[in-house]
Amino acid sequence: MNESLDLLHNRSFDEIAVGDRASMTRIVTAADLQLFAILSGDINPQHLDEGFAATTRFHGVIAHGMLGGALISAVLGTRLPGPGTIYLGQTLRFLAPVRIGDRLEVSVAVIARQEAKRRVTLDCRCVNQDGVTVVDGQAEVIAPQERIEWRASALPELRLSEGGGGLARLLAAARPLGPLRMAVVHPCDAASLGAALEARDAGLIEPVLVAPRARLEAVAQQEGWSLQGVAIEDAAHSHDSAARAAALAAAGEVGALMKGSLHTDELMAAVLSDAGGLRTKRRASHCFLMQSPAYPRPFIITDAALNIAPTLEHKADIVRNAVELAQAIGVAQPRVAILAAVETVNPHMPATLDAAALCKMADRGQIAGAVVDGPLAFDNAISIAAARIKGIRSEVAGQADILVVPDLESGNMLAKQLEYLGGAASAGLVMGARVPVVLTSRADSRESRIASCALALLLAQHYRSTPP
Known about the structure:
Largest sheet: 6 strands, mixed
Oligomer: single chain
CATH topology of the domain at 281-432: Isopropylmalate Dehydrogenase
CATH architecture of the domain at 281-432: 3-Layer(aba) Sandwich
């Protein structure tokens, strides 16, 4: 390729000499492995499933061997000899595993020419960032007879999304547990009342509507919905709805709460009231469970809804709450990234000092059940390639399950950017109370509300064996 990166040009047979070389560099990503699996049909879990791969001799996900072969083909077809090349044969040896985040130099070198048939033999190899040859072999090609310069084709933009869907997986995990009796607090608009009825129809909850009965019936009539068979706890107004719902939860009559059309402050004041019976020793915090097309696993962002400017003590509880949620959905030892703008401790940046302190608390057992690292910038937390470029060696970097943000503003913006610009699906819960609290927003999609109810059901089941 020439300097403008939009023109391809080749070398004709007459221009090729023994010893000529060409190469390109490629950082292997999780998306590369997923796309190769889609194209080839090779869905061996060694290449795609972290849980399975951890039990193998390689102790982690490795790339398909033929991915290296495909990269060699790219060099032959675009650089040496380039466009017009006819591929005749290839031998390959797979000498070492290729992992996500590896930086491969893919090179070819001419070792023989056959004048009569314009055949060229090339030594081919892929070498990782540590100088280890991971793939080698020889290719035989027919080199083009004439010089070719051609504009590179514009490829379509690809965006991976979860085939099973995050919501589908949550529903599959939650439905067998049976519906959870849930107080829906003041669902006096179509969005919140509809969400409660849809979650009921999905087999996730048995709703108890806590609100002025007349307002509920008016909304239902306007939308053409039936409330027959739905339990209603008549309340005078939104404050009364919150207090009554909290009392039902404290008495064990419901196993979770879901916010309706009242303000968050009203609901949380009732949940966190000293006399309400729902407070624990931990500070309450909010967790977004998210699934982004650009990241290979679900992850938690916290706290993006309750704690505006958390102190170190608050952040310790925020981490503990998120770890508990991760464990409730099956992540036995989640990887926690404490986010900051940089990945080094800077005394002028309080978020980096808090991150270092949280890591030391985890080392001392004050935060248990997780691997904690920080400070980590966002790119280092979610990209192994970015972490390696910066020389960060960490069990968390590039594969975080939990992202702990410095404050509510940064967390809220991050979560909404991922949702609205990144196509992420989300569910959200308040942790730190004796029951799960589904904290929905008027702008939340139907899928987000249903997913949050499924998440609450999984957490409530976890609380039965491990009370908060």
